[in-house]
Structure formats: C-alpha cells, structure tokens
Amino acid sequence: MKSILSASHLVRRYVLFGLTVIFALTLVRAVLSLWKFPLVVESGALVDLFVTGLRFDVALVAAMLLLPVIVVTLLGMFG
Length: 79
Known about the structure:
Order of helices and strands: HHH
Distance between the termini: 16 Å
Structural class: mainly alpha
Oligomer: single chain
Strand content: under 5%
C-alpha cells in the first residue's frame, strides 16, 4: 500500500525544521555571547548581534530548504 503525505503535513515538517534550526543557532549565539560577555557589552552591540544573527539564520535555513522544496515539488508534478 502506498503512503501519501498531504502537502500541509510536509509544510509543517519544513517549518518545524526551520524553526528548530533557528532556535539552535540562536541558543549557540547566546551561549557564545555569554562566554565573551564583557567584550560584547564593551562593544555595545548586543542587540545588533542577535538581530544580524537572526537575519543570517533565516537566510541559511532558506538556502538549506530550497533544494528539498524544489525536489518535492517536481516529484509531485511528475511522480
């Protein structure tokens, strides 16, 4: 018997993966900023550190999910 997943199920899995990766990267960034906290406070860029990091994290997750989304879309069209 062939098991077919709905499109909303796949979207939920991609979103969950993306949010998990963003959370993990933000957690790592927080730990590293706590490790070097005196330098971070001295530079005065604590908010900039997290905002810029979040921007790069979103770009990284989008790049990571681009190929699987394209492949699944093509398989859905021709498979």
